[in-house]
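Cross-posted from the bioinformatics board.
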Amino acid sequence: GENVEQHPSTLSVQEGDSAVIKCTYSDSASNYFPWYKQELGKGPQLIIDIRSNVGEKKDQRIAVTLNKTAKHFSLHITETQPEDSAVYFCAATTQGGGNNRLAFGKGNQVVVIP
Amino acid sequence: GAGVSQSPRYKVAKRGQDVALRCDPISGHVSLFWYQQALGQGPEFLTYFQNEAQLDKSGLPSDRFFAERPEGSVSTLKIQRTQQEDSAVYLCASSLEWQVNSPLHFGNGTRLTVT
């Protein structure tokens, strides 16, 4: 099955700086890649996603880039704010064929220092 | 509008007890998923429903785990004869459509502690 890994496990950034989290996946057939943000005591919340036919997607301060050849995708957060502090999870899956399960990475703890 | 609701929020069970965890998905959502999240880890898939049909239960760790969604809305995850390794947060998620890339909306989970 799909195996997803995230690096680094913890990332500290100064407020206003950018944060980048990289995620690698193993199954070349994977074609959908969401990113989730999880705050303490809450469930994961979808913040952005990308499909394999697109190389980059942006939504305000958040962007995701996908490199299918290298099988990795990255989350970029610009102008970080204290409320961006959370655990971020990447996930991957193959759409169709009865496979409806997301494979999640272990998460990245992002700490924004005011 | 209302999101995915899970109850109870916390559950403490003695080893060997049975527990039942409830999930109320967003109204009208076709797909429902259960995930298990151990401390410091990402969510791990348990099972998937499309309406009332359980289409994938390959992630259930043992036959002590059972899930149902009899009317295609509310779902219950039951764990029989709980063991300490069952301690985790159990997350329920729903999506409007059956396609996997239809956005998943997660509840806040039930934290199960087995003593």
